[in-house]
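Okay, any thoughts on this one?
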Amino acid sequence: MTDPIADYLTRLRNAIMAHHRVVEVPASNLKKSITKILFEKGYILNYKFIEDGPQGTIKVALKYDPVTKKSAIKKLKRVSTPGLRQYTGYKEMPRVINGLGIAILSTSKGVMTDKEAATEKIGGEVLCYVY
């Protein structure tokens, strides 16, 4: 697999389109960090790290509106790819839907959102946009 983050986002996207409640993805430290951010920002209902074998898996419980049955995640967009890395400084931080969405960055201080990186005054690689 050349791009595990794109695979992770695609599995979430496909599960949302099929209206699944739970999706399982192979685990890595970067995927765990992205999952924690999605949970903290309210885009997913819950998550669980399962240690089985050398890699392990992440079980993600997706969040839907009880009345309209629409997902909390409207769009997941991969920004930086292995073929074209996208970096940003803290002064030119991307704004997702004028501040309503989040950009997830990989920085020297770990994986964080665009707002956290701006307050820490550090830039990094823009992994994805979520809204």
Residues 32 and 117 are 18 Å apart (CA to CA). The chain has a mean pLDDT of 96.
